[in-house]
Amino acid sequence: FLMERKTHIKINRKEIMLAKLRKTCSCTPQKLKNFLMDFFPVLRWLPKYRCKEYIWGDIMSGLVIGIILVPQAIAYSLLAGLKPIYSLYTSFFANIIYFLMGTSRHVSVGIFSLISLMVGQVVDRELLLAGFDLNDDAPPASGDGSLQNDNLSNTTAFNLTIVGINAECGKECYAIGIATALTFMAGVYQVLMGIFRLGFVSMYLSESVLDGFATGASLTILTAQVKYLIGIKIPRSQGHGMLVITWINIFRNISQANLCDVITSAICIVVLVTAKELGDRYKHKLKFPLPTELVVIVVATLVSHYGKLNEVYASSVSGAIPTGFIPPKVPEFNLMLRVALDALPLAIVSFVFTVSLSEMFAKKYAYTIRANQEMFAVGFCNIIPSFFHSFATSAALAKTLVKTSTGCQTQISGVISAMVVLLVLLFLAPLFYSLQKCVLACIIIVSLRGALRKFQDVPARYCVNKVDTLVWVVTMSASALVSTEIGLLVGIVFSMLCIIVRTQRPRTALLGQIQDTSFYEDDLEYENLSTVPKVKIFRFEAPLYYANRNYFLKSLYRLTNLDPNLEAARRKKYEKKEKQHLKKGNHRTANGLGIGETTLQLVPKQIDFQALVVDCSSISFLDTTGVNTLKEILKDYKNLNIAVLLACCNPSVIDSLKRGGYFGKDFGCMQEMLFYSIHNAVLFAKDQK
Prior knowledge:
The protein is mainly alpha-helical. Helix content is 59%, strand content 6%.
C-alpha cells in the first residue's frame, strides 16, 4: 500500500522576507525598549535581583575571582608579550562589559591563557618584522611606578613608516598597538557574526578538536615558560615549529641556567601543585578555594625585594607596573589590515569557548542563554577595551568553576572582581616591581594541569571512539608542532575529512530474518538469523551521493556475489559463440550441449535470488548521482530478471526518486517498487514468480 502524502502549501519566501524586513525596520517605543533590554540583559534581571538571597554569594565569589585574577593577569602578560598593566586593564574592562551584555549568570570572562598565547604569537611576529629585538630579558626600568615613566621608557625608538604611522614608537608602544588592533578586528568579526547569525560555525569545532587544540596550545605555553623557570636568556621563537626550536635553544643554553630562578621555580611549583591537589581533594569541606597564587606572589615578592635577588643573582623581575589609566586611543587602521587574517581564528576560538561554557553552566543551573547575544557580548568585550589598551578576552573554565563553587548567583560577582582589579590598578600595582618572572611562569604552568591531564584520557577516549581519538591526536600535534592557528585549521579540516570518509566507506550488510518475527538484522553481527530464500536484503548505512556511489555498487556486488554487468557481458559473449556455431551448421554448443540445453547453460548457478531488497532506512538523502545509481541497478538487475525493491525510504528520498524518474512518468509501478517495511518487500518478492 502507499500512504497518501499531505499537500504542502507553497511558501512565498519573498513575502515572508519583506514582512520580516518591515517588522525589523519599524520603530515604536515598545520595540525600542525591547531592543535595549535584549541588547543589555542587565536591564531585565537587575531590577529583579534578590539582594538578601544573592548578595553574599556574589560578593564572596567576586572577591575570590578578583584575588585570582590579579596574579593570573600579571602572569599571562608573559604569554601575550605585553606589560602586566595591559593584562590588568583587560581583566577590568571585560568584567564590566560582560556584566552589562552577557546572558550567562556564572561564566567568568577575562584574560585566558590560550587567547593570550594567540595574541602573543601575532605580537611577536609583527615585532620581528618591524625590526625589534624579541629578547624581553632586558634589565627592568627602575622608575617610580608612574605611568608616564613606564610608558615612555623602552627600547630604542623606531619609526613605523612600514605601516603608515609617522610617529616614533618604542617596542612596548608598537606591541600594544598590534594587540589592540588585533583585538578590535576580532571583536568586529564577532559582532558581524552576531548580526548575520553565523554562530553555526561553532558546530564545526567538535569536542575532540577543541580538546586537542587546548592541549597542543598548552604544550606551546609550557614550552614558552621554561626559559623563565630556569632563568636562561634565549630569543622568543617565531613561526612554525616554535616548540621544537625553543626546546633546541633551551638545551643549547642549559648551562647558563640561573640557580636562583631554578630553586625559586622548584619551590613555587611544589607549593602550588600541593595546594591545588589538597584543594581538589577537600573542596567539599572548603567554603572557598585557597588563594594560593596570591600567597605565593606576595611571599615571593617580599623575598625577592628584601633578598635583592635581581641585583645579587641577576634574577629577572617584572619591573615597574604603573598605576592609573592610560588615555584611550583608537587602534591604528593600518595595523588592523596587517592582522585582519590573524583575528579570524582568534574571534572564533574566543566565541566558541565563551558560548560552550555559557551553555554548559546554563544547563547545569536550569536557565537559558542566547547564543547570539553572547556573540555580541564577547565581541564588545573586545571592541570597547581595545580603545583602552586591552587585548582579547574569553570565558575561562577554571575561573568559572571557582566562581560557581564560591556561591556566584549573577554577574554582580564580575563587578566585584573588577573592583578588586581596579584597586590594584590604582594603588597596589607598583608593589609587584620585584616579583620574579619565574614565579609567574610557575603560576602559568600549574594552571595548565587540566589541559595536560587530557593525555590520561586518551586510552578511555580510544575505547569510546577511535576516529575522535585520531582527530584529537592530529589537532594536538599540529597545534603544538606547527602553530596554534594552523593546528585549529588542521583539526577542523581533518574532522570534516573523517566525516566524509565515514560516509564514503560506510557499513554495508546483508540482512537475515529474526526467526518467527518480521524484523531483519545484520547476518554477520547476530546469531540464529534465517536466510530468506530467493531474496537478498542489502543495507547501506549512509547517504547515497556522488562520493560513495562506487563503494555502494562494489559492496552490493560483493555481498550478493553477483555483478550484473559482468553477467550480462558473459551472456552476450556466450550468445555470440552460439550464433557462430549455428552458422557453421553445428547443432552442438561450445560446451558440448544441445540447443535445447542452452537455456540451462545461460542461467548461472551463482544467481540464487530473484529479488533484491535495498534497506534505505539509513539513507538520509540522495543526490542526482545517487538517484541515477539506483536507476542503474534497477535496469541492470531487471536484465537478469531480478526485481529491485526499495524499503523504508524517508519522504526526502522518495521525493528525490520521483523527481529523478525512478518510478516512471506516471508513478504507476510505484506500489510494486516501494515498501514501508522490509518485511512487506520480502512478502511481495515471495509472491512473485
